[in-house]
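Batch job 17 of 40 flagged for manual review because the log was empty.
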Amino acid sequence: MVRSLPPLNWIRAFEAAARHESFRLAAEELGVSAGAVSQKVKALEERLDVALFERRPRGVHLTDAGQRYRDDLGPALDGIAAATERIASAAGGAKLRVTVLPAVAERWLAPRLARFGEQRPEIAIEVSADADVANLAHSAFDLAIHYELPAGHGLATVPLFHDRMSPVCSPAFAADAGLRDPADLLNCRLLYDTTWAEDWPLWFRAAGLPEDGGQRGSGFTLYSMAVEAAAEGLGVAIGHHTLVARDLEAGRLIAPFDLQVPAPRGYAVMVPRWSSGKPGVSDFVDWLQSEAE
């Protein structure tokens, strides 16, 4: 039987535009112009003799037929992607592409990967440190390690761990600054990751101190930089204990106070539908869970 299929580039243009309800955002995702997306969608509508979008002065809106077509196409395209991955893996061995929050990639995942390699040497892991997983379900990544996301992102989510936080610094800094009481921190330089700027206010609030901590601080765009600066004696950083455990064990850092507070968000591993059946994915997720325990 000969299948009556529209050109795949028409389908991809429509699916991206339907998902975003925007020709411009679809064009950015596909690396083409918004005009090219519009032309392909128009050609598809003419082929089907059905209006898939309502064109409005401030954008486009899916028709009822467009919504039904989008819902039917999503699983079909996931199936094509999964079949492609399976045949590629069978031909050349399993390779998993993983996107991870930078701090978790550097300070939790990377030091552990050798253990997975010992267990499953036939699976190659490629790690990309990235703070954004908004489009994971339609990216080239097989899974992500990120903050737990609410339902509705088209991702299977497996919780990994929740962290706890407290100040950390070098032993020499603690001695020189005379850190005996949390209030002593008001006279210290506070180090922080700029994407986690709420960490210090959370801890100070729990300690019954002013949330601004005396407003003396240095921010870094990578958490590892803040930790290294603390280890070298620049000041005091907020220690996410899972991420600084090796430094605490080695004595490079100490936690001068007992007070710990929960980190604002937990971490999870997320798998899009199209890669869930790819060889190695479930094994890697199981291994991540065992490491998180």
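Reviewer: the log was empty due to a logging misconfiguration, but the result itself is present. Residues 169 and 230 are 5 Å apart (CA to CA). Unflagging and moving on to job 18.
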